[in-house]
Amino acid sequence: MSAFNGMRISASGLSAERLRMDTIVSNITNANTTRGKDGKAYVRKIAVFEENLNKELGMRGVKAVEIVEDESPLRKVFDPSHPDADAEGFVTMPNVNMLNEMADMIAASRAYEANVDTLNSQKSMFAKALEIGR
Predict the structure, then answer these.
(1) How far apart are CA 132 and CA 34, in angstroms?
(2) Which residues, in sequence order, are CB contacts of 126 under 8 Å at separation 6+?
(3) Positive or negative CA dihedral for 74, 78, 84, 87?
(4) Would you say residue 69 has pLDDT above 80?
(5) 112-121: long-range contacts (C-beta < 8 A, 24 or more apart)?
(6) What is the mean pLDDT of the segment spanning 124-129?
(7) What 8-state DSSP symbol labels residue 89?
(8) What is the SS3 assignment for 90?
(9) How far apart (Å, rounded) are the C-alpha atoms in residues 63 and 114?
(10) Nearest 5°: CA angle at 125, between 129 and 9?
(11) Which 3 state secondary structure label does DSSP give 76?
(12) Strands (E), the chain
């Protein structure tokens, strides 16, 4: 087990939370996108992670597995003047809920901060260990 395993785990957590925040930003940006390249409304994306465990080396942190589409139903909004309205006057809107996205962003931001604090604590411990050796 390396002395730097803790730093590697924190770094993987930073990378994972950054991807999670990027995904949330994409969801917020496209919250009103009714027609994408495929001609359909935007579908909320979710970053999926799993533990990165190596039997020989031990815990290596977390890794991004994939970004999946949320399976919750798209919203229907009555707006007959909208260019993407169907024959009945309803527009299919993305399944992005801004309150959920903001709560997820706060959670991801705090997890990112926790990983930064852990990384800084580990750096401080290494520095103190070097001072002891003098």
Answers:
(1) 62
(2) 3
(3) positive
(4) yes
(5) 112/13, 112/14, 112/17, 112/18, 112/21, 114/13, 115/10, 115/11, 115/13, 115/14, 115/17, 116/10, 116/14, 118/6, 118/10, 118/13, 119/7, 119/10, 119/11, 119/14
(6) 87
(7) S
(8) strand
(9) 17
(10) 125
(11) strand
(12) 45-54, 58-69, 75-78, 90-93
Q: In which band, very low, low, confident or very high, does the pLDDT at 58 lie, cut at 50, 70 and 90?
A: low
Tokens 């070097």 -> residue: 130
Name the token pair of 117: 């604090």
Other Cβ atoms closer than 10 A to 103: 12
Q: In one letter, which amino acid is 43?
A: V
The first and second tokens of residue 32, run together, are: 């009103």
**Which amino acid makes up residue 14?**
L
| Residues 49 and 63: beta-carbon distance below 8 Å | yes
66 contacts: CB under 8 Å, gap ≥ 6: 48
Predicted TM-score (pTM) of the model is: 0.84
User: Contacts by 123-128 with C-beta closer than 8 Å and gap 24+?
Assistant: 123/7, 126/3
Residue type for position 89: G
